[in-house]
Amino acid sequence: MEIEFIVNDYLLAWNLLYRGSISPEIHLLKQKLWYNHKKLYRKLNKENVEILKNINDFIPDNDTLYNFVFDFDSFDKIKKATNKHRLELMKVWDCNHKKIRRLLKEILKFEIIDRYSIIVVHPTLDVSEYMPNIKEKNIVWGRKTDLDDVINTLINIIYHIVKYEMSYLEEKDKKIFETIINLAIKKELYTKISGTSKYVDMEKDILARKLYPYWLMYLGANKSEMLNYMMRDKIVFDVDRYKVDTLLMKTDLYGFLEYCIKEKDKILNLENFEII
Length: 276
Prior knowledge:
This protein is of the alpha/beta class. It contains 12 helices and 4 strands. The chain has helices at residues 9-18, 24-36, 38-43, 47-53, 64-71, 75-108, 150-165, 174-194, 206-218, 223-233, 253-262, 264-268, and strands spanning 2-6, 115-120, 127-130, 138-142. It has a 4-stranded mixed beta sheet. Helix 7 (150-165) packs antiparallel against helix 8. The radius of gyration is 22 Å and the shape is elongated.
């Protein structure tokens, strides 16, 4: 898995136009453009998708609104701050990518081989998104809290990448899909990197807790090892109620997702689970 952090002027300008205003000056500019170019403003509402499809060679059919943004007094300052944020994210990734990639491969049980582009926007825009229905692996990123906890930021970026990588399974069962990706990245990967369990905040997430015993089987735990995980994660269940499925430890995350979707009724059966 390779990650590059880039800034794209058109995508930055589009986000300044269509996201929440990051300053009073930007707000006034948007109001002026809306008043004077209402039809065009409506027409470009979805053009961010086209930009993401052609991130390196996008040329708008009509660049009127973009040129207004590019010529705006504060745009150079905004772009400079965006580039500074990009460099900060890139520096954090460069310091941690070897460990993250190694641990990620252990958890997923497969290696992500594609290159992902993180298109950085100004952090005040507070954006983190991808378009699952396009083949280009581009993720828009810029959040207010990015530098408050840089490891958490990297985890969130990886979370989006893994969702992108496996997105076709989301159509089969969105809730199970999101819960398992969360277990893999925001729980297990974060726990391995930080050395502190991130499972402890699952108390009210009933689906995640029901999946948890099967998740431990996927991670390769036998019944005695499950007790160690339960102590680590502060999640307790009756191990004797579960038959360890050794096939789960041999499958990858794709296989585990398929298993949980197929066996959903069994997993969700309250008779098989009790919060202790």
